[in-house]
Design goal:
Strand order of the largest sheet: 2-11-14-13-12-15
Number of helices: 5
Number of strands: 20
Number of domains: 4
CATH architecture of the largest domain: Beta Barrel
Order of helices and strands: HEEEEEEHHEEEEEEEEEHHEEEEE
Structural class: alpha+beta
Strand content: 35-45%
Helix content: 25-40%
């Protein structure tokens, strides 16, 4: 019995010793990536809509039936070109009526002048009372005023008749026709829209909604790359023309309208297309870059206790970049794997621009350094952690 108890005790002690040696001898395999130099671009992404720079709606100031249309969708028009005709019959009749009224008023004015002259002669000879002369002069003035009123009525009638012919106000292309022949347009409250004309489709603009967190680094003149769904494999280019001060709020998200000018010489781009834009904030042709996974990596607590103090770069230099460029932090920490193996050691680096996947390192590292992006833990480890999906080769 004592022998069996001794064997069981020896088994427990041996198992504990073996487990202790295994858990302490197992080492962590680090995932590393080489620090390299490459081209890097930091951009602000947003979406917007392609619109003509100048868009004019052509309406009617009068009511009536559409008699003729001289333009259709996509028609090229010039300034002053006839595009539509409203039935002029009613307005022509009004013009004739006003001409008749004016003729009658002129006849009444002639009679008033003759009467006033006769009354003046009689008054000079003391053959007529002064009251008759005053009445004749008043009738003369009223006749003159009536001529002015009738003349204005005739002028208005002629203008209404002229408005039956609708002309294009600009050179451009018809992108929308809102009426058909025979349709009645009513201009009682507001002018009905007949056509929408874009001045020049070779020059477009993108009205983009840029988030308030990014609008501070968007400035006039910056280069913009964008794509549209109609041509997913082609990249178009433009420039920031204006950053408008008015903010828009939708579901507690504040955005600002950034206007981007676009050249469209081959007319591939059409008004209304959705553009996925990238405003180029900064660009480096030869940036020393590390993956963002290296900046996010945290050393396991067991290993962190055995590593040396971090290597900090000199503080006198500042990360370069255009004015207003956002730098994520003035100092970040990465872990570098020694060339001869062993434990990785920490290095404090100064980041520069970032494209969302990689970040430029201004100070702290050199080309060829192996930075840790993740760690692979043994299966038997008491507190396993998932490997970093952005990691590189194992060391």
């Amino acid at each position: 019995m004592k022998t069996i108890f001794a064997l069981i005790l020896a088994g427990f002690v041996g198992g504990g010793w073996w487990y202790y040696r295994r858990t302490h001898n197992e080492h962590i395999e680090y995932l590393t990536t080489r620090v390299e130099r490459a081209e890097m671009t930091q951009a602000v992404t947003a979406t917007g809509t392609l619109n003509p720079v100048v868009l004019v709606t052509v309406g009617s100031q009068i009511s009536g039936n559409v008699l003729k249309l001289f333009a259709d969708f996509n028609t090229r028009v010039t300034a002053g070109q006839l595009v539509a005709q409203i039935d002029p019959a009613v307005y022509l009749a009004v013009v004739h009526q006003c001409e008749g009224d004016l003729a009658m008023s002129k006849a009444a004015l002639e009679l008033a002048r003759v009467t006033a002259k006769r009354k003046q002669e009689l008054a000079d000879q003391h053959a007529a009372p002064q009251a008759d002369l005053d009445t004749a002069l008043a009738n003369l003035h009223q006749a003159e005023a009536t001529i002015t009123i009738k003349d204005a009525n005739l002028e208005k009638a002629k203008l209404d008749l002229d408005h039956c012919s609708i002309y294009s106000p600009i050179n451009g292309s018809v992108i929308l026709r809102s009426v058909d022949v025979g349709q009645t347009v009513a201009a009682a409250m507001n002018a009905p829209v007949l056509f929408t004309i874009a001045k020049d489709l070779t020059d477009l603009q993108i009205d983009s909604a840029v988030a308030e967190a990014d609008v501070g680094i968007a400035t006039v003149g910056q280069t913009v790359d964008f794509t549209v769904d109609a041509f997913p494999y082609q990249t178009f280019h433009g420039n920031v023309r204006q950053v408008r001060f008015a903010a828009s709020t939708l579901q507690n998200v504040v955005t600002y309208d950034v206007v981007i000018t676009v050249k469209n010489p081959d007319l591939k781009l059409l008004p209304g297309m959705t553009a996925n834009i990238a405003i180029v904030v900064a660009h480096k042709d030869d940036a020393l870059k590390v993956p963002n996974a290296a900046l996010r990596f945290k050393m396991p607590e067991r290993e962190a206790q055995a590593i040396p103090a971090p290597v900090t770069p000199p503080p006198e230099r500042k990360p370069p970049g255009p004015p207003g460029l956002k730098i994520r932090q003035q100092q970040r920490r990465v872990y570098v794997m020694p060339a001869d193996g062993g434990r990785p050691y920490p290095v404090d680096v100064k980041p520069g621009i970032s494209d969302g996947v990689y970040t430029e390192v201004v100070e702290g590292l050199k080309e060829g350094d192996m930075v840790v992006t993740g760690a692979s833990y043994p299966i038997s480890h008491s507190s396993p952690a998932a490997p970093n999906p952005f990691g590189g080769a194992r060391r």
